[in-house]
Amino acid sequence: MSIINRELRLKHRPEGMVRREDFDLVRAPLSELNDGEVLVRVLYISMDPTNRVWMRDIPQYMPPVAIGEVMRAGGIGRVVQSRSSQFAEGDLVQGFVGWQDYFVIHESAANAYLRLPADPGIPLPRLLGACGTSGVTAYYGLTDIAPVEAGETLVVSAAAGSVGSIAGQIGKIMGARVIGIAGGADKCGYLVDELGFDAAVDYKAPEWKKALKDATPNGVHVNFENVGGDIMKAVLSRMVLHGRVALCGLISGYAGDTKPSDDFSVIVVKRLAVRGFLVFDYKKTKQAVHTLRGWIREGKLKTEETVVDGLEDAPLVLNRLFDGSHKGKLVLRVDPHA
Ligand SMILES: NC(=O)c1ccc[n+]([C@@H]2O[C@H](COP(=O)([O-])OP(=O)(O)OC[C@H]3O[C@@H](n4cnc5c(N)ncnc54)[C@H](OP(=O)(O)O)[C@@H]3O)[C@@H](O)[C@H]2O)c1
Q1: Ligand 1 mean position to 49 CA, how many Å?
Q2: What distance, in Å, lies between the first and last C-alpha atoms of the chain?
């Protein structure tokens, strides 16, 4: 009996929050494998803010997902059939999996996938978060792009999210005073009480700009920026002369409803060093992952994953990155047995 694959194909380019109707749910029988091909069962899908940008027809670092195409997404899968000597049944692979139950890799594209050990030693969702792209992004942002030094003040936005929660904790490991910006009292309490941030600013509270000022009496030396818009503007206004910004992301503009700030005068006046970066530019990340895993083992770095079930709900689950109803890494479990 042939296997039926469920695929979520982009139907409309969403406006604002993503709707189920923006995707077609297609059930298609899988063809027999050809020589050199392997069939992979998708186990977990990484929910990333950049997925929302890929749905838009705007210039970006990868081509937008085309109308009719299976939604592109990173994740982890297990090889269930192999007609390639390079893969065996049971192998775990990490890379682009798409919003679907199964996908096929041709062995000529094997290098695009990371092979995971049979027992990675940590839960698989963490390989998509603190021990994967999110952790490595935070690591390079604060060790290479805008290195933070002991005694300096670091401000991290979207601080209770996947990248931000790791960035703030790395700042603490480096000896900085760390201020997180997040939405709501619950997330702010989590940052201070559980992750050891020095202070947290709830940007949904009316007096948040004053709270940011009070939390940064000596100014801000380094800004790890994930949000942009008014939040970035407020942080830049608190920066010291020659302050550094690791410009990691601008999530407030990804759904197309917020204009990024066009007030660059503060960058001139304060002689700021603002560096944008993409984690994909770092090709050898083994050392970073090794360091992150070491900090986790030593109890210096806490991790959190929000795992949600259900491939068909992927469009709605993605919205949780934009309404903030998750903590740490947001992951979709596709295989209920994973
Ligand atoms: N440069 C790179 O290579 C790279 C790699 C990975 C990720 N990133 C970027 O890193 C950032 C965080 O990504 P992530 O995967 O770790 O996601 P995440 O932080 O786990 O989730 C996004 C968070 O952003 C906050 N947010 C969403 N819309 C907002 C708005 N309009 N204003 C203020 N806060 C808002 C929400 O938290 P609240 O509840 O606090 O609002 C939400 O929880 C994104 O900008 C992403 O594009 C960059």
Answers
A1: 6
A2: 23
Residues of the chain with pLDDT under 50: none
- In 3D, which of 160, 154, 5 has the Cα closest to residue 77? 5
- In degrees and rounded to multiples of 5, residue 115 shows phi and psi of -90, 130
**Ligand 1 atom having least distance to the Cα of 278:** 3
Q: Bridge-partner residues for 40, per DSSP?
A: 79, 103
User: What's this model's pTM, rounded to 2 decimal places?
Assistant: 0.97
C-alpha to C-alpha distances, 1 to 5, 29, 30, 31, 32, nearest whole angstrom: 13, 10, 10, 11, 11
Question: Pairing state of beta strands 199-202 and 273-276?
Answer: unpaired
Task: For residue 335, give both structure tokens.
Answer: 């295989």
Closest-CA residue, ligand 1 atom 19, reads 161
> Could you read off the pLDDT of 265-284 as tens digits, one per residue?
999 999 999 999 999 999 98
- Cβ(162) to ligand 1 under 6 A? yes
Ligand 1 atom nearest to 258, measured from its CA:
31
